Amino acid sequence: MDSLTQITLGAAVGEIALGRKVGNKAMLWGAIGGTIPDLDVVANLVTDQISAMAFHRGITHALFFGILAPLILGWLIYAFYDVEHRSQFWKKLLMAYGALFLLLFLGSLPMPIPRMEIVSIAWIVSTAIIAFPTVLYLISKKKPLEERPTWKGWALLFFLSIITHPLLDACTAYGTQLLQPFSDYRVAWNNIAVVDPIYTFPFLFFLIWASRKTRTSDRRKWLNYLGIGISSAYLLFTFMNKMQVDNAFRQAMEEQEISMSRFTTGPSIFNNILWQGVAEGDSLYHYGRYSLWDEQAPFAQMNQIGKGHEYLKPFENDRVIKILKWFSNGYYCVKPLPEGKLEFSDMRYGTFPMGDGSEGFIFQFILEPKDGKIVAEQVRPEDRNMEGAFTQLWERIKGI
Fold first, then answer.
1. DSSP state of 242
2. Minimum mean pLDDT range among 4-8, 30-34, 134-138, 173-177
3. What pLDDT score was predicted for residue 382?
4. Helices and strands, number each (H, E), in the chain
5. Separation of alpha carbons 209 and 220, rounded Å
6. Residue 173 φ then ψ, to 5°
7. pLDDT in the model for residue 162
8. Less CB within 10 Å around the terminal CB: N or C of the chain?
9. How far is 217 from 275, CA to CA, in rounded Å?
10. What sign has the CA pseudo-torsion 32, 71, 165, 319?
11. Strands of the sheet with 302-306, listed across from one edge
């Protein structure tokens, strides 16, 4: 999910853990905990785009990390507020940093990333994770707490805020490596878009309202629970919606006599009304969109898209190609481009309307053979003609 949603979720569960004891600081530290897994994006600073993509939503989003990292961070934050032993602050900080580095390094070894790059990634990500709360604490002028929690209380706060992050991410199409370092399987329930304001807004609204109440107020507690409850109810609705859409897609394929080996469906960005589906055949993919407000039958209009997998055969042992195939879960199509380049499209995210009236796959890479290896460059939104795209998206959500 987007960063704002994860920050809000982390703050809400942080309030559950320690709101009664430390007030708004529980929301603040919970928000930091909710952000920590996504600090894996700093891997982009020390490695190539493809390795960084493989690392993202890897070990920092694993249940293994979500259980062990809170013990380290909880002990560290407890040390921050330990007035009696403040002289040992930097020693404990270094110890926490070393433990976190070791956790990230060992947890990343099974990933398809060169070993020396793993050292660099573990170093920069652990530095970011430790520096984030440390800098925030130092600029807060080391204000003492009205009621000091135990390190177990801090560990519980970070456990709730960190573990909920990958579980929510697993609800999206991107996929989350929950089982690292034991398996690189990407869990992707694909029931909610990466950005969905209807899920985020109740969390944020009631969290802000709750933050204005005193830490011992019962109203503060129930306002926070109300926000969690409404957003969780909506999340449950998206799971039920996903089941209905899957059934509608299967039925549409049967009625249109389309033979498929497997399929996937998922919501389009910003909503849970407009869905896209991809069915894999022998040599073609069948792609269609369906709005719950459509007047015609679900997935009545299907487009046939050639796989183009044969274009990758000369490079099937290339590391970049292996990662892209794994990342896309095999739902990808390839098109030749001028100058020997290839366009690799991950089909799980569907298409987005372009400014010229055409549709383009959201997740695309331009592949270029260089010196016997493949160099991949992701197509960014700024590289596309997006004029009027959101208007077209809204029009399609309203149905046809």
1. H
2. 134-138
3. 65
4. 11, 8
5. 8
6. -75, -25
7. 98
8. C
9. 42
10. positive
11. 262-267, 274-280, 284-291, 302-306
